[in-house]
Design brief:
Strand 11 (208-212), helix 9 and strand 12 form a beta-alpha-beta unit. Helices cover 36% and strands 20% of the residues. The chain has 11 helices and 12 strands. By secondary structure, it is of the alpha/beta class. The protein has one domain: Alpha-Beta Barrel (TIM Barrel). The model has no long low-confidence stretch (mean pLDDT 96).
Length: 293
């Protein structure tokens, strides 16, 4: 089996450019115009796709959290009410779909519950992601799998046994597994980027990616050097905006720089075979004094 899959019109896997996802998530705070600006920023940066989060609040919100009160831009409201505020409805998603098609960028969502899969089947997105929090929700994995679309699984807050079980439930065909640490933002000491190599050794039949929540750009490029075929980072218009994910997100100019870092990193890796490049010949003739057989 080849370590590659097709997402939309792009091949993802070894030998292909890293597939870069700008995770908009809920950083739009329920505002469609903000979401469109974020899509435009992702396009300008050179991302391959944008991703949102789709929840059915009454299903996906843990019962013990529904009535908890919190300060929000909409006032002092319950956590369930807040979850409703940041969800887009069908009409708004149709507008997102139209805008992404106009800008020629793929879009997809993380589905957090089974009704969200039914909701999203109204749209022709190229893949589904099951977030780290739902890696042990086997019915959700099966539901997303039943659509026939490629599946992206994320491994944050999970043991290796849970990762293996999630993959067993999903099956290895048309699958990407993302290494992830679900801390927002994540300290460097807990990024554990060598897990990309570990997952590649453990699961040789499908692409391994990286979903990062760190502050800064360099670790994500390093993950690509370790073999991450897909990269996901949160995008925001301004890290000072209200919202729990903003601090672990990258602003538009930074995202543009990140894409460049990733592309340069992949171009720099080479094939590991020592050779004398044609571009070195002039230097060799000028600088080398002794040639030994």
């Amino acid at each position: 089996m080849t370590r590659e899959i097709k997402i939309g019109k792009r091949m993802v896997g070894d030998g292909h450019p890293s597939y870069i996802i700008a995770e908009i998530g809920i950083n739009h705070n329920g505002d469609l115009d903000t979401a469109k600006k974020m899509i435009d920023a992702a396009v300008h940066a050179g991302a391959d796709a944008v991703k949102f989060q789709k929840r059915t609040p009454d299903v996906a919100t843990p019962p013990e959290q529904k009535d908890q009160m919190r300060e929000t831009p909409w006032g002092y409201i319950s956590y369930l009410d807040y979850r409703h505020k940041v969800e887009f409805d069908e009409q708004q998603y149709h507008e997102i779909d139209r805008h992404c098609r106009e800008k020629k960028i793929d879009w997809m969502v993380s589905v957090w519950d089974e009704p969200s899969v039914d909701f999203m089947e109204k749209f022709n997105t190229p893949a589904y992601k099951v977030p780290s929090a739902s890696l042990t929700d086997f019915n959700l994995i099966r539901k997303a799998r039943a659509t026939g679309k490629p599946l992206i699984l994320s491994s944050g807050m999970s043991t290796m046994e849970q990762v293996k079980k999630g993959i067993e439930i999903a099956g290895e065909k048309n699958l990407v597994m993302m290494h992830c640490t679900s801390t927002y933002p994540c300290e460097p000491e807990e990024l554990n980027l060598k897990m990309v190599e570990t997952l590649r050794r453990e699961f040789p039949n499908f692409p391994i990616g990286y979903s990062g929540h760190e502050v800064g750009l360099v670790p994500t490029a390093i993950a690509v050097a370790f073999g991450a075929c897909m990269v996901e980072r949160h995008l925001t218009l301004n890290r000072a905006m209200w919202g729990s994910d903003q601090a672990a997100s990258v602003e538009p100019h930074g995202f543009e720089t990140l894409v460049k870092y990733i592309r340069v990193t992949q171009a720099s890796l080479g094939d590991g075979v020592k050779k004398v490049y044609e571009s070195e010949m002039g230097s060799m003739k000028k600088l080398r004094r002794v040639v030994k057989e």
